[in-house]
Design brief:
Biased composition (Acidic residues): 450-463
Protein name: Transposase
Structural class: alpha+beta
Strand content: 15-25%
Oligomer: single chain
Domain DUF4218: 628-740
Radius of gyration: 33 Å
Largest sheet: 10 strands, antiparallel
InterPro entries: DUF4216, DUF4218, Transposase_21
Number of helices: 29
Organism: Gossypium anomalum
Distance between the termini: 75 Å
Length: 996
C-alpha cells in the first residue's frame, strides 16, 4: 500500500529522488513525517507542498487502523471496498446503504458514512479532468486566450444558458445566480497519465517491452514490427533513441448514452491507445486512456477539430518532451510521445482526415484516382474497376462484356504522401461551426448526358471537392511523414460486405443488391443482356434469376446449416437464434456475428446450396479476411493476399451486379496493403474500442448530465485500475482470469507428466477402471517419447482407482465430454491430434517417409491416472473417425475436410485399440453437419482467444502460431468461366421474380 502511494505522488523513499526535483525528504523525519526540505538546506518548520500534503494525509490514513485488531487500515479497507463497487457496477446509493449497514454492524470501525465521503478519501489517488466550455454551434472553445469570453466570436451565441434555466443558490449572502454553460467539453489531460505509467513500478517495465522483450523475427506481431513504426523511427532517430518514448493511436466514435434508442443523442469520446505495451496488455480496456468526452446532442462532424485543440497542444508539448521520473531506472528523463494513426469507422474517417468519403471519389486510398460510376436507376455510385490491380497483361483487363463494359489499361493507383496532401490543402478554406456551413440545397436529378460518359471519367479531380478541410492533425510537426495516418476499420468493412452478400443471395427486401433498379442499370450499361428485365403484358417486370439466386429449398438448407450448427464455448454468440427459418432470413446480427459468418460459417453454409463458381469466390473472400485478421502476419504472404484480393474482387464483378459494389466492398482491396504498413488488425480496428464505449455507456446513471456521469464513472474506474495493480491478494479486473484460462499452479503442474495439467470442471467421480481400459491407458503413457528411465523405473502401473471429469480447461481450450453437452447449445467435444507416422511405398521399400496425419474425434471421457502419488497424467478418451480409408474421411469439391463418425477407426473395446491421448496433445475443432450427405460433417478449427504466442525468434514456427487456419485456396481460373460465351448468367432451375 505504501508503494502505491509513493508511485501515485512520485514521492520516493530515502536515497531516491523525489517530486518535485528540487525537494527531498528530510533525513531526520520518519515515514509518517510531513517535512519537505530543499536540497542541502534545513527547514524543519516548513509546511509541505500541496502534493506532499495529499500524500501524507493518505499515509496517515494508511497507518490508521480500521478497528482494533483488524489487518486492514482505513485506507486499504476503503480501496478494497471501492474496488468491489467498481467491479460489481454498484450505484452510489446502494453503496451508501451498504456503508450504513456496516457502520451499524461494526460501530467501533472507522467506516466512512457515505459513498461521497469515501470518494473524498481516495480521490487523490486518481487523476482529474478539465471542464472546457464550447460554443453551442461548435465554432470555438472558451479555452486559452479566449477563456473569459462570454459569447462566440464567430456566430455570436452566448456561452450560457437562458436565465430561466439557471439555478439559484441560497446561502448567507442571499440569492446568487449560477450560470450554466450550454456545452461543456470534459478533457482528461494526457501528460500526467503518461507520466504515471513510468512512475508506477507495476507498469514502467511494460512500457519498454516493445524494445527489450519483443522478438524480432521478421513477422508482424506487434505495431513495433510494422513498416509505419519503423519508417517513423528512421525519419526521427532522436525519438527512436529512447524506447520509453510513447507511440499512440487515437480512436473516436459516437454512441447514444441512453438506452432509449428512439432518442436522438450522440456523445463522442476520444480514446488513446499506448502501443509500447505488450500485446496481451496493449488492447485491454484498462490500458486505454480516455482523452475527452465531446458533448451531444449532435455529433461534432467536421467540427471535431475544435474539440481536439487541447489534445493537439499537449501532443505538441509531448513532442518536445516533459520531465518524467522513471521508477525502473530511478532517474528523471525527457518523456516524448507521438501519434501514429487514428482508428475510426468510415464516417468518422472523413471527420478526422478531412477527405470526403461520399460521392465519386469516396475512397481515401485511391483519392482522385477512384474508379466509380453513377447508377441512374439505383441512384448511387458503384465502385468497380478492380482489374487495375492485376498484371498489365492479365486477360481480365480486356474482357469488356464480363465486367462493366469497358477495357482497363490503367495500373493500380499510387498512395498520396503527406507533402502532396498539404500542397492540395493550401487553398482550402473551411469555417468551423454549424452556422457557417453552406445551406443544404435540393440536388437536381442527374442527366444521363452530363455525367458518367467517357469524357467524364477523365475529369480533372481538382475541380471536385475532394477535401472538406485541413485536418488539425497536420499541426503536429511529424504528421505529414506518417505513412499510415488513418486506418480503414476492418470490423465495419467486414460487417457491410457480409451484409451485402447475405442480403443479396437470400433476396431480402431492402437488403438485396439485385432488384429492378439494378437490372435497369444493366440495361443502361448494355451488359449482361440475359439478365435484363422483361416487360410483361400487364406492365410488370420479369427478372430472370441470376447465377447467385437461390431456390426456396436452397434457402432452407442454408438456414438449416446455421440453425443446427453448434460452436465451441466463447467462440461466438448463439447465431441460431438469429435465423428465421419460416422467412428464410437472418436478423439482429451484431458486428461479431458478421465476423464469424464471414470468416467461418458463410462458406460452410453455401457449399451445399450454391453453385461452385459463386461459392469458390466467397470462400476466397473469406480467406482474405482471415489472412489479414490473424495475430501473426507474414509480409510475403500479405503481398500474395493483395494479388488474390484483386483477382477475387474481379471474379465477384463477373457474378454480382454493379450495385453490389458499394464503397465498403471496394475498400477490401486496400486492406492487405494497410496490414503491411500497420501490422496486425487486432491493434487497429474498432472491436476493442466499441467494447470500451459500451463500458462507458454503462457509467451513465444520471440521464440529465450524461457526459458528466460518464466522466465521473471513468475517473473512479481509472483510480481503481491504478490501485488494483497493487492488490495482489484480491481479485481485480487485471488479475481476473479469462473464462477458459485454467489454473496456473507451477508446483502442482510439476507432478503431471506430458504437460497434461489443467483445470477440471464439474462433478468429480471416483471410479475403478476395467482391465482393458487400464491396460490401454497405461500403455499409452508408457509409450510416451518423453518418458525417461527414472520414470519408467518408478512406473509400475497406475492405481486402478481413477478420477473422472466431464469437462477440462487446458491451453486456452474448454473441453466437454459428448455426454455433458447433449443438451447444450455449444459444442466442445471435438478434438484433433496431429500424429507423425512412417509410410512405405511397398514391402521392399527401404526408405520410409515421415508424414503427419490428423486424427479427428469426439471426446467421450476424461480421466486422471495416479501413479501412487508420485506422478499424475490426464488422458482423453475419444471416438476416432477412420482417417485411413475413404469411408471415414474425404475432401469435398472445395477442399473442405469431411469426417464420418459412423465409421470409427476402432471401438475401443479391444485390447489393442488406442482410444486415449494426452490432454496436452489435442486441439479443438467443431463439426458442421452436411444436410445433403447423411452422416458426414465438415471440420472447422477453433483457436484460443486470449493466448499470444510470441515465437522463438524463428520464421519457421509461423504455421503453429497462425491464429486462424484458412479454408483451402480456390482455383478461380478453373471454377469460373473466363469468356462471355462460356459464362452462364441465368439459372434455369429457379423461379423468376416479378416486380411492378
Amino acid at each position: 500500500m505504501e508503494d502505491m502511494l509513493r508511485d501515485a505522488f512520485n514521492i520516493r523513499s530515502h536515497g531516491e529522488q523525489s517530486f518535485p526535483p528540487d525537494f527531498i525528504i528530510s533525513e531526520d523525519c520518519n515515514i509518517g513525517g510531513n517535512v519537505f526540505c530543499e536540497t542541502g538546506t534545513s527547514a524543519p518548520n516548513e509546511e509541505p507542498n500541496e502534493e506532499a500534503a495529499k500524500f501524507y494525509n493518505l499515509l496517515n490514513k494508511m497507518n490508521e487502523e480500521l478497528c482494533e485488531g483488524s489487518k486492514y487500515s482505513k485506507l486499504s479497507f476503503c480501496i478494497r471496498l471501492f474496488q468491489l463497487k467498481c467491479l460489481g457496477g454498484w450505484t452510489g446509493n446502494s453503496f451508501t446503504m451498504l456503508l450504513e449497514f456496516l457502520r451499524e454492524m461494526f460501530p467501533f470501525a472507522k467506516i466512512p458514512q457515505s459513498c461521497q465521503d469515501m470518494k473524498r478519501l481516495i480521490k487523490y489517488l486518481g487523476l482529474g479532468y478539465d471542464k472546457i466550455h464550447s460554443c453551442p454551434n461548435d465554432c470555438m472553445l472558451y479555452w486559452g486566450d479566449q477563456k473569459n469570453q462570454q459569447s462566440c466570436h464567430v456566430c455570436g451565441k452566448s456561452r450560457w444558458m437562458n436565465s430561466n434555466t439557471e439555478d439559484v443558490n441560497t446561502d448567507e449572502g442571499g440569492a446568487q445566480l449560477r450560470k450554466k454553460p450550454v456545452k461543456v467539453l470534459r478533457y482528461f489531460p494526457l501528460i500526467p497519465r503518461l507520466q504515471r505509467l513510468f512512475m508506477s513500478s507495476k507498469t514502467a517495465e511494460s512500457m519498454r517491452w516493445h524494445n527489450d522483450q519483443r522478438t524480432d523475427d521478421g513477422l508482424l506481431i506487434h505495431p513495433a514490427d510494422s513498416l509505419a513504426w519503423k519508417s517513423f523511427e528512421s525519419k526521427f532517430p532522436s525519438f527512436a533513441s529512447d524506447p520509453r518514448n510513447v507511440r499512440l493511436g487515437l480512436a473516436a466514435d459516437g454512441f447514444n448514452p441512453f438506452k432509449i434508442m428512439s432518442t436522438s443523442y450522440s456523445t463522442w469520446p476520444v480514446v488513446l491507445v499506448p502501443y509500447n505495451l505488450p500485446p496481451w496488455i496493449c488492447m485491454m480496456q484498462s490500458s486505454f486512456i480516455l482523452s475527452m468526452i465531446i458533448p451531444g446532442e449532435k455529433g461534432p462532424g467536421n467540427d471535431i477539430d475544435i474539440y481536439l485543440q487541447p489534445l493537439i497542444e499537449e501532443l505538441k508539448q509531448l513532442w518536445s518532451g516533459v520531465e518524467t521520473y522513471d521508477v525502473l531506472r530511478k532517474e528523471n528523463f525527457n518523456l516524448r510521445a507521438a501519434l501514429l494513426w487514428t482508428i475510426n469507422d468510415f464516417p468518422a474517417y472523413a471527420n478526422l482526415s478531412g477527405w470526403s468519403t461520399k460521392g465519386r471519389y469516396a475512397c481515401p486510398c485511391c483519392a482522385a484516382q477512384t474508379c466509380s460510376k453513377w447508377l441512374y436507376n439505383g441512384k448511387k455510385f458503384s465502385y468497380m474497376g478492380h482489374h487495375r490491380w492485376l498484371d498489365e497483361n492479365h486477360k481480365f483487363k480486356f474482357q469488356r462484356t464480363l465486367f462493366d463494359g469497358t477495357e482497363e489499361y490503367r495500373g493500380a493507383p499510387e498512395q498520396t504522401v503527406g507533402s502532396e496532401i498539404l500542397f492540395m490543402l493550401k487553398d482550402i478554406n473551411f469555417s468551423y461551426g454549424n452556422m457557417n456551413q453552406p445551406p443544404i440545397t435540393q440536388t437536381r436529378r442527374r442527366s444521363r448526358d452530363e455525367s458518367d460518359d467517357e469524357s467524364d471519367e477523365e475529369d480533372d479531380p481538382n475541380e471536385a471537392e475532394l477535401w472538406k478541410k485541413r485536418s488539425i492533425f497536420f499541426e503536429l510537426p511529424y504528421w505529414e511523414h506518417n505513412i499510415l495516418r488513418h486506418n480503414l476499420d476492418v470490423m465495419h468493412i467486414e460487417k457491410n460486405v457480409c451484409e451485402n452478400i447475405i442480403g443479396t443471395i437470400l433476396n431480402v427486401d431492402g437488403k438485396s443488391k439485385d432488384n429492378l433498379q439494378s437490372r435497369l442499370d444493366l440495361v443502361d450499361m448494355r451488359i449482361r443482356r440475359d439478365l435484363h428485365p422483361q416487360v410483361l403484358p400487364n406492365g410488370k417486370y420479369r427478372l430472370p434469376p441470376s447465377i447467385f439466386s437461390m431456390s426456396k429449398k436452397e434457402k432452407e438448407v442454408f438456414c438449416m446449416v446455421l440453425k443446427d450448427i453448434k460452436v465451441p464455448d466463447a467462440y461466438a454468440s448463439n447465431i441460431s437464434r438469429c435465423v428465421i427459418f419460416k422467412d428464410r432470413r437472418l436478423y439482429s446480427l451484431k458486428s461479431h456475428d458478421y465476423h464469424i459468418l464471414m470468416q467461418d460459417l458463410l462458406p460452410i453454409a453455401l457449399r451445399c446450396c450454391m453453385s461452385k463458381n459463386v461459392t469458390s469466390c466467397i470462400i476466397e473472400l473469406s480467406n482474405i479476411m482471415k489472412a489479414i485478421c490473424g495475430k501473426v502476419l507474414n509480409v510475403d504472404e500479405l503481398e500474395k493476399v493483395q494479388d488474390r484480393a484483386a483477382l477475387t474482387l474481379c471474379n465477384l464483378e463477373k457474378i454480382f451486379p454493379p450495385s453490389f459494389f458499394t464503397i465498403m466492398v471496394h475498400l477490401v482491396i486496400h486492406l492487405p496493403h494497410e496490414a503491411i504498413l500497420g501490422g496486425p488488425i487486432f491493434y487497429r480496428w474498432m472491436c476493442p474500442i466499441e467494447r470500451f464505449l459500451s463500458k462507458l455507456k454503462s457509467y451513465c446513471r444520471n440521464k440529465r448530465y450524461p457526459e458528466g456521469s460518464i466522466a465521473e464513472g471513468y475517473l473512479e474506474e481509472e483510480c481503481m485500475t491504478f490501485c488494483s495493480r497493487y492488490l495482489e491478494d484480491a481479485e481485480t479486473r487485471l488479475n481476473r482470469p479469462s473464462r477458459n484460462a485454467g489454473l496456473n499452479d507451477h508446483d502442482l503442474a510439476e507432478t503431471y507428466l506430458f504437460q497434461s495439467y489443467g483445470e477440471p470442471i464439474g462433478k468429480l467421480e471416483i471410479v475403478e477402471l476395467d482391465d482393458i481400459s487400464w491396460i490401454q491407458a497405461h500403455r499409452y503413457v508408457w509409450s510416451g517419447k518423453d518418458v525417461n528411465d527414472e520414470i519408467k523405473w518408478l512406473s509400475q502401473g497406475p492405481n486402478r482407482v481413477i478420477k473422472r471429469y466431464s469437462a477440462f480447461l487446458i491451453n486456452g481450450y474448454r473441453f466437454h465430454t459428448k455426454y455433458r453437452e447433449r443438451m447444450r447449445r455449444t459444442k466442445n467435444c471435438g478434438v484433433v491430434v496431429n500424429s507423425s507416422i512412417t509410410s512405405y511405398a511397398s514391402a521392399r521399400d527401404s526408405n520410409p517417409v515421415e508424414g503427419n496425419v490428423e486424427y479427428y474425434g469426439l471426446l467421450t471421457d476424461i480421466i486422471e491416472l495416479d501413479y501412487y502419488g508420485r506422478w499424475k497424467v490426464i488422458l482423453f478418451r475419444c471416438d476416432w473417425a477412420d482417417v485411413n480409408t475413404a469411408r471415414g474421411i474425404k475432401k469435398d469439391q472445395f477442399g473442405f475436410t469431411m469426417v464420418n463418425f459412423s465409421r470409427l477407426i476402432h471401438t475401443g473395446q479391444q485390447l489393442m485399440d488406442e482410444p486415449y491421448v494426452f490432454s496436452s496433445q489435442v486441439k479443438q475443432v467443431f463439426y458442421s453437419k452436411d444436410p445433403t450427405d447423411e452422416g458426414w460433417y465438415v471440420v472447422l478449427r477453433n483457436t484460443p482467444r486470449d493466448l499470444f504466442d510470441m515465437g522463438n525468434g524463428s520464421r519457421d514456427d509461423i504455421v503453429e502460431r497462425s491464429e486462424t487456419l484458412p479454408f483451402p485456396e480456390q482455383n478461380l481460373d478453373e471454377n469460373i468461366p473466363s469468356t462471355s460465351t462460356q459464362y452462364q448468367w441465368v439459372r434455369d432451375d429457379v423461379n423468376e421474380d416479378i416486380y411492378e
